[in-house]
Amino acid sequence: MAIPLFSQQAALARRYFSDGEFDKAAILYKELHLKNTANDYYFERYFVTLLELEDYKTAEQMIKKSLKQHGQKIERYVNWGVVNRLQGSIDKANSQFEKSIKLMVPDQVGITRLATAFVKNKEYEYAIEVYQKGEKLMKVKHIFSYEMGSVFRQKGDVPNMISSYLDCLSYLPSRLTNIQAFFQRELSAGDGFNELMKQLMQRLAKTPENTVYAELVIWIYTQQKDFENALVHARALDLRLGENGSRIFRLARTAFNEKDYDATIASYSYLIDEKGTACPYYVDAKEGLLRAKRDKITITYTPDKKQLEDLRDEYYSFLKEFGKGASTVGIIIELAELEAIHLHDLSKSIALLEGVLQMHRVPRNVVNQTKLNLGDYYLMKNEEWEATLLYSQVDKEMKDAPMGELARFKNAKLSYYRGDFEWSQDQLDVLKGATSELVSNDAIDLGVFIMDHYALDTTANTMKLYAKADLYLFQNQFEASVVLMDSILTYYKGHGLTDDILFQKAEIQLKKGDTQLAIDLMNELLKDHEESILLDNTIFKLGTIYEEQLGDTKEAMRLYESILFDHPGSLFINEARKRFRKLRGDGV
Known about the structure:
Elements (H helix, E strand, L loop, with lengths): L4 H14 L3 H14 L4 H13 L3 H14 L6 H11 L3 H13 L5 H13 L3 H15 L6 H11 L2 H14 L4 H11 L5 H15 L4 H13 L3 H15 L4 H12 L3 H15 L6 H17 L6 H18 L6 H14 L3 H12 L6 H17 L3 H14 L4 H17 L2 H11 L5 H17 L7 H14 L3 H14 L6 H15 L2 H14 L6 H15 L3 H14 L6 H12 L4
Helix pairs in contact: 1-2, 2-3, 4-5, 5-6, 7-8, 8-9, 9-10, 10-12, 12-13, 13-14, 14-15, 14-16, 15-16, 16-17, 17-18, 17-19, 18-19, 19-20, 19-21, 20-21, 21-22, 22-23, 23-24, 23-25, 24-25, 26-27, 27-28, 28-29, 29-30, 30-31, 31-32
């Protein structure tokens, strides 16, 4: 099908225009304009080409002719003013600009079109005047506030941009999401959010019933990760509107994701204590509360035992209230982990998970995750046969899924613990191509470790000692692990495992609460083992210690920066970059 001549002409004109061949474009756009003088696009394109060619006389003639034919298009006076301005006649230009404003009528589309013409030519003050007069003509307050906010934004006038957008919200609350997006983009740097909060508070003092302003306050506090103040205002709004707690529930989940556990706990507690069992989020809030308390307590290497015991009692209270069944399996698995990992009661954790395996209607993936956890706890209890049996069941059941790959890795590591390095290595070689990046990376790390150290002595006694120490560490038998590692350092001085031992001993000291000794051991590794493949692991671990435990931002940044510049191939580079930027204050 042939392309119409008109379309071919328009396409050619656009090409000439984009290539800067304005003399050729002008000829074509003139023809297109004359064929349809009411078409604003062709008028504007022809007008611009004439300006580029500095043919002001023709441009002025075209404008006059257009106004004679289409007098309602008062935005043409703006074009006329632009022609005068380019010729240095500022007074004449202003006269044309003002004339267009005098000719305004109560027509919303026409008013917007005139203001847009001013904005296009960067005459922002005139555009604002158009909208202000337009509001009076239309007799609708704040009808053009959204458009005025855009003008002030382009002008760089932040306070008036904010004021206009807030005016718009009083007229059109439905624009909240859209305006939040503008604020997020425009106010992310500098004191913009402070100005926004100041204006909001002033407005709320005058019109406390305006809930959209209250919602915006909550949003700002959330953006600034000040969840405590966000909760104060969210609770007030929840009560005022008689809501069902949905706002507080969303806030709790956001605070939890940002690891603000105090605000999360306060939010869930409000839903439980103030809303009660009638609240549709009651059960979810109970679960969320347990998880927030768990993460808050266990985030440190040495959680308080009394707090752990109290938390365990709360888990059992939850199960007493809601029962043990398919709907509460997640809580049972978490409780079993608490018993095994933190309270070291393997018998209770195993009994809990064995109970899950006897339940009906538990999802397949949950059953298999339960088996993996149970296998770990049996291994911690030195019941290796039970552990490998469970891992193998998951491997068979989920063969082509990431969970099946994880089960195979656990079996391969169990063989490593036993000292069967060759079989373990064979399995790890296969797992290097796992679909799960985590399993693949772990398989590569362990495989390289075995390859590097297994052949260092003919009997493999050193590796067997280290693997046994590694198992003790997995089982939380710290003293037994240290004894074996120290024996390697004593009887096999200078062995290639020395850097690994220093790193593992540092991990043990962290779990025992001796942060300074852990730092000393890591610094010894960095100083005496400059060729160790554990350098980036050690530097990153030190960075997290200085950031999270010692609050030394400067030293943490130095360590993260070392990962970025000295170890560009490290697996920790993305997390190091993220932490470095956060500490530097990027995007705040």
